[in-house]
Amino acid sequence: MSKILKYISSLILCLVAVYSVQAQKTKTEAKTKIVADTIKTPLFNGIFVQGDLISAVSSLTSKGETYSYEGSLQADFKHKYLPVLELGYAGADKLTSDNIGFKANALFGRLGLDFNMISQKKDKKPTNNLFLVGFRLGMSKFNYNITNVSITDDYWGGSQAVPYNNISTTKVWYELVAGIRVEVIKDIFMGWTVRSKSLISKDDDGNVTPWYIPGFGINNGNANTAINYTIGYKFQLPFKRKSAVKAKKPNTEIKPDAKPDTKPRNNNQQTK
Amino acid sequence: MYHVTVTDTSRTAASMSIDSITVRGLKYDTATKKYSYMDSVLYNNLKTITKIDLPLHSFESASAFEVTFNSNQITTNTVTNKNDTILYLNKRDTLIVTHQNTDKYLSLQCGSVKVHSIDTILTTNNFIDSIRITNRKVSNINVENIKIYK
Q1: What ipTM was reported for this prediction?
Q2: What is the spatial distance between Cα A150 and Cα A160, in angstroms, rounded to a whole number?
Q3: Could you tell me if A227 and A193 are in contact, meaning their C-beta atoms sit under 8 angstroms apart?
Q4: Does CATH place domain A44-237 in 2.60.40?
Q5: How many Cα atoms are found within 13 Å in the side-chain-facing hemisphere of A147?
Q6: Cα distance between residue B149 and residue B89, in whole Å
Q7: Does B107 sit within 8 Å of A209, measured CB to CB?
Q8: Element housing A193 (H / E)
Q9: Which chain A residue lies closest to B54 (C-alpha atoms)?
Q10: Distance CA A72, CA A88 (A)
Q11: A98 to each of A95, A149, A154, how far by Cα in Å?
Q12: Which of A60, A76, A167, B39 falls between 20 and 30 A from B103, CA-CA?
């Protein structure tokens, strides 16, 4: 009887020890996995230099009525925060059916920040593609001319030309931006963005409003939308490029305080 | 263009109505210093009207109009205790509106228009008793600017 009891108690002890070892092993494996899958993203990941294709193509097809050429510089911090500077040159040379002409051209700039919404999955291959949402603050200072405007008095008779020459203005607007950017070849990215633009500096009723605002587009009141299709190159600093190569081997990076093999073995030994 | 409301309320009459109205623009000849009719008539014997639109001169600071009224007025005769009807036939008054003109830009498609600010209105008193300016700003928005009282 005592032998049976001794046998049962040693069996229970054994089972508890096995369970304990197993639990410890699972815990350690999970910890190791988390450490191994968390790729330490460097603070600075390079600079995108991009050009917009849509504005360039539409400039060619609009026969000079409106034209816009723009590019951007965008830094990549932590692969999450991407401050951007967009610069361009745009203008318009419009003639209405009543021969009223509008002419303007100027440089414009936009400053903003994009957030990459793609989080690097722990169990998936890291991606350089971006899903961006962000905002811009745009500004353009320009002069414009509106020609061939005349007022005719239909009843009393007479006509008067009203010249609007060399009117100087500064327009400020903000944009809400969303888009994707895909690495098509190593370090070469293509993508599109949609933009909702809203004028901050609006005109009062009766002001001689510009028909076109460089960087904002046709001035239909106070809002506008636009699409950009960009192609660009991501420049990376040489030492960052090396660290990026290293980062692509996730299993080699193990947290120093995690010693998966030692503790379970010790526990096992203690139970004996 | 400004809007004139011809009111049918009178200080003495029981009731009054405009049977017809004729409005013509008057151009001033600086050489002869006389007014003459414009070629086109703005309102030609128009019946049962309560509102008229008058175009102000775009390039001069005064606009003159001749308004011809045909009207009847019903008053109560206190002696006979019956209603008397008074007929006003072809009663002519001249309105001279002095105003300031300003350019207003609308859009690239619509161009510019003149807007006005009414300074004063002078009138003869053959039919018209008085005039009240209700809104001095005259623009492309359709609002009442003056009232004519009998």
Answers
A1: 0.85
A2: 5
A3: yes
A4: no
A5: 11
A6: 17
A7: yes
A8: strand A188-199
A9: A155
A10: 8
A11: 8, 9, 17
A12: B39
Matching residue, tokens 């007479």: A158
Secondary element (H or E) of residue A71: strand A66-77
**B38 touching chain A per CB within 8 A:** yes
DSSP type of residue A186: T
Nearest 10 degrees: CA dihedral of A214, A215, A219, A224? 170
Q: Which of A93, A103, A156, A207 to mutate to test the interface with B (most CBs of B within 10 A)?
A: A156
**If you compute the radius of gyration of chain A from its CA atoms, what whole number of angstroms results?**
32
Q: Distance (Å, rounded) from C-alpha B95 to C-alpha B127?
A: 12
pLDDT in tens, A145-177: 999 999 999 999 999 999 899 999 999 999 999
B57–A162 C-beta distance less than 8 A: no
Q: Is A211 within 8 Å of chain B by CB?
A: yes
Radius of gyration of chain B (CA): 18
Within a 13 Å sphere around the CA of A46, how many CA atoms are in the beta-carbon half?
20
Q: How far apart are CA A245 and CA A251, in angstroms?
A: 13
Alpha-carbon distance A146 to nearest alpha carbon in chain B (angstroms): 8
pLDDT, block means (10 residues), chain B with 150 residues: 55 68 92 91 87 92 94 82 84 95 92 94 93 92 89
Question: How near does any CA of chain A get to the CA of B147, in Å?
Answer: 23
Is A206 in the B-facing interface, judged by CB distances under 8 Å? yes
Domain ranges for chain A, please list them. Answer: 2-37+253-271, 44-237
Cα–Cα dist A76/A232, whole Å: 13
Task: Tell me the CB-side half-sphere exposure of residue B66, using CA atoms within 13 A.
Answer: 17
A150, A158, A208 ranked by CB distance to B105: nearest = A208
Q: Which residues of B touch A100 (CB under 8 A)?
A: 108-109, 111
Put simply, whether A38 touches B (Cβ < 8 Å) is no
Q: What CA–CA distance (Å, rounded) separates B107 from B111?
A: 5
